[in-house]
Design a protein that fits this description.
The chain is 69% helix and 0% strand. The protein is mostly helical.
């Protein structure tokens, strides 16, 4: 219903405001979403649709978990110098 539509808008705005095209490309690559010659907005829609599909929930969870670990490692004073992911 309207709650899901609202959550989709929130996800879309979050990706639009807080993620670069390069970051979105990494997410799309992780999910095997083809992304040739599409605009940022279209890429975000494909990612949100993918993440909303219950069949993809394990893959989405794993991507978010790994993304979190990468951010943790980048922020670490020791490991940060070894992690190149942008």
């Amino acid at each position: 219903g309207s709650t899901n539509a609202f959550q989709n808008i929130i996800k879309h705005v979050d990706y639009s405001e807080n993620y670069t095209v390069k970051m979105l490309s990494h997410i799309a690559n992780y999910y095997d979403i083809p992304k040739k010659k599409i605009k940022k907005d279209e890429l975000i829609s494909l990612i949100v649709d993918y993440e909303n599909n219950p069949e993809n929930s394990i893959q989405v969870y794993n991507r978010k978990r790994c993304w979190h670990y990468i951010q943790e490692l980048q922020e670490d004073s020791y490991f940060g110098k070894f992690i190149v992911f942008n």
